[in-house]
Every structure is written in C-alpha cells, then in structure tokens.
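Lab channel / #folding
Pinned by the channel admin:
"Please post every new chain as: sequence first, then the structure tokens as a reply. Keep commentary short and put observations after the output so the thread stays searchable."

First post following the new format, from NK:
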Amino acid sequence: MFEIRHRDGTARIGVFEVNGKRVETPLLMPVINPNIIEIYPEEIKEKFGINAIITNSYIIYKDMDLREKAVRDKLHGLLNFDGIIMTDSGTFQSYVYGDVDIENEEIINFQREIGSDIITILDIFSTPQDKYEDALMGLEKTYERARRAKEITDGIIAGPVQGSIYMDLREKSAKLMNSLDLEYYPVGGVVPLLESYRYSTVSEIIVNSRLNIDFSKPMHLFGAGHPMFFSIAILLGIDFFDSSSYIKYARDLRMIFPDGTRYLKDMEYFPYTSPYIEKYSPRDIMEMERRDSVGIIARHNLYMAVDEIRRIKSFIREESLWEYVEERSRSHPALYQALKTVGKYSDLLEEHEPLYRNHPLFYTGNETLDRPIFSLMKKRFYNNYNYKRKSCIIADENDLDKIKGVYGEMDAHFIIRTMFGFVPYEYLYVYPYMQAPRIQDMRNDENLNDILDHLDFEYLISWIGGFPENVESYSRYLCRENRDPDIIVRCAIADYQFGHDACRHLFDGDIKLIKSKNTGMIRNIMRDGKHILSVRNDGLYTLKIEGARILHKNFVYPRMRVVVSGDSEKFNRMGKNVFGKFVVDMDHSLRPRDEVLIVNENDELIGVGQTHFSFREIRGMKKGMAVEIRETLLF
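Reply from TO:
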C-alpha cells in the first residue's frame, strides 16, 4: 500500500498504491465537482502530472443523472480518469449546509458500488466552536462509523481524525482510528482553522494525530490547498492534500502565489510567474472574457500548488526541509507562530529524527534551536556523557584553537559556549556543531546550569571573556600523565553515538588512529590491528564488523540490535538488506540512520548496518527496506 522511499524526520517521499495505480507523495489531489468541471481530470493528469483526484460521492448520489452514469460507467468512466479517485462522503456538506439526508452505511455502499479507490466514511465534522463534550461525542461516533465501515466493505477506507481544537481529543481520536488498522488516515475539521490562518492550531492537530497513527500509513490533510502551508504540514508528516481553492479563488479572480493570494485587480505586475501567465500582464487577463480569465487563473493556481510540492520533495531528498520551513515561515506571521508552536513538540518529534543529515544545518534564527535534533542531542548527552573529572572549565568558542593545545593535559570537562548553547568540547567534532558558524551574538546560554548539574567534577573554572595567559597557574588541575586528546574526543563520540560504555569496550586495547595524509583528519580506528571504526565526514562513526563483534559481546540484548526473522536471516547473511516486514524486534532507543547490530532470534550476530527507521516507525511496515546491511558474518 505505502512505501517510504526518502525521509527527512517525519517528512517523507513515498509511493502509495491502490488497485494497481501508483502515485508518489506528497501529493495534492485536486477536487473535482462533477457538476461544474473547469479543468478536466485528463488535463490534470497530462499537463500537471497528477494521477489522483478527489470528488464528492454525496453530490453524485443526490443527482439522479450523475448517479445513474456512475453506477453504469463506474466512477472512472464518469470522470474519464484512470488514476486514483478518492471520494468524500458528504461530511463537508453537512458542515456547510447542515445535516445531510443519508446514512453512513448507505454512502459507504454507494462509494463501493461506483468503484471508488478510497472510500471515506460519513464522519462527524468537528468545528472550532464545538464544546468539549460535543467534540468527544463526535469523534466517538466517527470511530463507530469507521469500525462499521470496515465490517461491511473490503475497500480502502479513509478514517478521519476529529476532535475539534482539543489536543487530547485529537490524540484519542487518532489512537482509536489507528486501532482499526485502516489503510488511510485524513485529518478532518481543519478548514475553518485554515481559513482564519490559525496555522499554529492546525500544526498541533497534525502533530497529535501523526504521533498516534502508524507511521507506515499515509495521512491526508482535508481542505488544505494553499501552498503557503504545505511545507510545515509535510514537515510534520502529511502525505496528501486536497483542495478546490484553485478553482474557487479563480472564480473570484484571486491568484495563488507562494507567499499568499492576491486579487487580479490589485496587481500591476505579477510577483511570481507560471507557464499560464508568463505571456500576460494582470491587465491583459482582466480584459479577457470571464470564462477565459477564470480558466487561466485556475490553471495558474493549480500549477503554483504542484510546483510547491515539487520544491518540497527536492528539500526532503536533500534533507534540508527544516531550513526551507524556517525560511518560509518568515513570509507570514501565522506561519512563524506555527513553527514556534511546533518547537514545543521537539521532545516528541526527536523519535523520528536522525542523528545526522547529509545536508549541513544552517542557522536561520532562534527557531533553529527548537529543532528535534537538539532534543535528541540533549538526551544523548544526559544518557551517555558520564565522566568523572577533576575540574570543569567553561570557555568560549573563540578560544578553541588555544584550548586544543591544553585539552589533553588537563583533567577537566571543557564546556564550550556556542551559538547553539553550551556543549562539551568533544561534541564540537560531530554534526551539527562541527558545521556551525561561530556567531557569538546568536548564542543560547539557558542550558548551562543543567549541564553543570549533570557533570561530575570538583572545581569550576570560567575562561569566558578570554583564555588565561598563564595556563600553568592551573597546574593543580593537570593530569598526572598526558593523554592523547584525539583518543579522548573519539571515546566521547563513541559513547554519544552508541551509548554509555561503548568507549570502554571499543577502546580497550592497542588503539591506533589512521589519519588522512592530505587533511590530517582521523579516518580509521584500529584496535589490536583490526579495523573497528571509520570516521565519517560528519564526525560520527561507521561501525565495522570487528567493532560490531565487540559491542555485541559486551552489550546486553536488545541494546543496538535489530532482530530479523528466520525467513530473512539467510538472505541477510548474504548481504541482502532487511525489509521491514521481517523485523521481529528492535532496540526502542534506536533512531533513523543509527548504526545497528543485525541479529537473529537467538541473538547471534549476522552483520552490521544502518537502520532507516525507529522502532515506532518500523513495526507497522509491510513494504520497503528498513535496515541497510554493510558487512555480514557468514555461518
């Protein structure tokens, strides 16, 4: 049904397949009103590259001519479209016009009869004005209707998450729907919020829905058709959108642009262009026949939406979507407030966060500090940085070159002030700190006391404001014997990446650091003549099979493990990657792109590789590769 091909945190590029038809996500499904079609579905497919649309089964049902044609020719024949067609149920009509005169089972059976690819239940639309009790009753009725839908049809069922603006109800609704193991999960009741630019509330609704829905299932944001909100919604895990805004705005001569909408009459020049307006000025389109101007604007509006999703996909592929969202948020105060609200969920979102990205982290402002990567790093610090040293020296990033000269001689924690806050000296050599510019007026000092409370030391010394001229005056803090500073750093990074005590086990022996002749950077680490670790460009390690043997021997099950079934083991030993459906168990603390030990159900080491998913994400996977194997042990 759904395979994740690329991901950037909770954002992903996937392939969704139903009834032999495939689409790539994220995707906008244009709404097709079967009574009034401005852009025909075949043009949407051929010129816009969209192979999925949404139409309203209730409208078809209530029109006798349309109903007869749909029953006779089926939905795809009625609309002359061979792609995926999702049908809505009349819920939105009930919101706009009041109750609809149809029952849930009746509209579900009708959608099945006319061949809908994705059937939507008649859910209870929750409005922002709903009282808590009413919203709770609505989501419970919606759940019961979804449960009944699953009993009476074997089609693909869309079970909307409701709950109004109450986040505990959104969480409850998501969990209830998820318990039904449906194939498709829309987030409903958000149109009034989107129309009033309450993007912060919608973002919270998405987070509380996504974190409680199986990560291997697609999510759809009903009624969100403006490209301005796409990036933050996709960042939070939305896969599908739908909207009729492209045509509704066009009928008002209102044009969609990446940063908002503008009325045609108010423009002398177009701030952005598209293939549909590049030959015209605003005046040219104003002077056209009404039908022609509406047609041009509708196509332009749809192009703007499709173009934004295409752009977002490129950023997911580059693993730089966070930067794009942060830049995008500056275009509208409601978007910026939404991004700051998302930051409050950083500790929850970090479960989907890789420890590193291929793309450098760029600082765009204070909102950058709210990214989940910093919550993940904080957890790794408190769990894994546990060393007893005689003193703790607080220093400034500007003095790094001088600090390097004394680092190996002093039995001290060196805590460095950076633009991202205070961090241990050793962490400056890993993503994202190693790539950060030294901008001293953009630092966050709030975390210092928490760090000091965690560390074990006797004397606190501050070098903030300048490196001391006479370091020898600190002789009482010197180590009794000098240590190799590179090994100290590399040990701390091993603990940071693999967990506490990894250093003690991996570096217990004759250690040799192999450095690049060109750059002097450490590239490989040997222990007793065996290659155990390679150092990547991001400062973290690639675990070699000899290193994997050491950790497997010393780490208690299930630490760092991904357990595969017997059906998969023989292929994995041959170097074939691990697919999600063959994962039996997994260390729950692992995050996407962590180095892992691949073992069988008897905890026998098979090989070493890199997981692409956390446990929460991997446990529901029916399709797709979950762990990339690098090296294996034969029998």
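NK: Residues 41 and 81 are 6 Å apart (CA to CA).
TO: also worth noting, The two ends are 35 Å apart (CA to CA).
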